[in-house]
Write a structure and sequence with these properties.
- Residues 1-198 form the Calcineurin-like phosphoesterase domain.
- This is YfcE family phosphodiesterase.
- Pfam families: Metallophos_2.
- It comes from Paenibacillus anseongense.
- The chain is an alpha/beta fold.
- The chain has eight helices and nine strands.
- α1 (13-25) links the parallel β1 and β2.
- α1 (13-25) packs parallel to α2 (44-53).
- It is globular and about 50 Å long.
């Protein structure tokens, strides 16, 4: 059984199409989606339509929550909240009422079992859409913040846009990175791949080439309200 976990598309439908094609070439049996579907990218509606067409389990990320109700004080630095809400309003305007209802009602956690292997997946932490847990967190911190709410063999999360895999006490922790906005300096989309066969587990981070210049052109073409900054992130894969 081969399972792909994707997340943090952020309205980058070009990157999403490239990743879905790579998943198909890898002959994955299942795709799970861990949130942040359409906010901060040039093609929010097309991105969301592509995700919904997968007919698979999708959970909510912080950016999906923001699309529905706006960015609130305390969730981002005060100096950027007004601009982020302008971006949110632009994204909101591109979606249909049914899209907004879909985002609002998304669950926040996936628990599944594959060939006897239990997998727990969430966007940021089991208890929060917003909490940041970085790759340099110590083992105790990772276990307490990410691996203590459910009894599983594999834990999968996203949110930080930096992919990594750690092995702790015989269990696997994977961050799948970002499809649309990687922050690790690698200008390629990322997703996580888990292969389970006869009780054996193989995990990997897949990196996929995307047409970054076309994405940057789209930010300009659609008159995105923060096009310059977002284009710089796409071009450099860094905030």
């Amino acid at each position: 059984m081969k399972i792909a976990f994707i997340s943090d598309i952020h309205g980058n439908a070009i990157a999403l199409e490239a990743v879905l094609n790579d998943i198909k070439q890898n002959k994955s049996d299942k795709i799970y989606v861990l949130g942040d579907l359409c906010y901060r990218g040039p093609e929010p509606k097309r991105s969301l339509d592509l995700i919904r067409s997968l007919n698979t389990e999708v959970i909510k990320g912080n950016a999906d929550e923001w699309v529905v109700r706006g960015v609130r004080e305390g969730e981002v630095p005060q100096k950027v909240i007004d601009l982020m809400n302008i971006e949110r309003d632009w994204t909101y305007s591109k979606l249909e009422p049914s899209d907004l209802a879909y985002l609002e009602t998304l669950p926040t956690e996936i628990n599944c079992e594959v060939s006897g292997i239990r997998i727990n997946a969430f966007h940021a932490t089991p208890d929060s859409l917003f909490e940041i847990v970085l790759p340099n967190e110590d083992d105790a911190g990772l276990q307490n913040r990410l691996m203590s709410s459910q009894d599983a063999q594999i834990y999968v999360y996203a949110h930080i846009h930096k992919a990594y895999i750690r092995h702790l006490n015989g269990k696997v922790l994977m961050n799948v990175g970002s499809v649309g906005l990687p922050f690790d300096g690698i200008t390629k989309a990322s997703y996580g791949l888990i292969e389970i066969e006869e009780g054996k587990i193989k995990t990997s981070i897949q990196r996929v080439d995307i047409d970054t210049e076309r994405v940057i052109e789209l930010y300009r073409d659609v008159d995105y309200p923060n096009a310059a900054m977002m284009s710089g992130i796409v071009r450099n894969a860094r905030v």
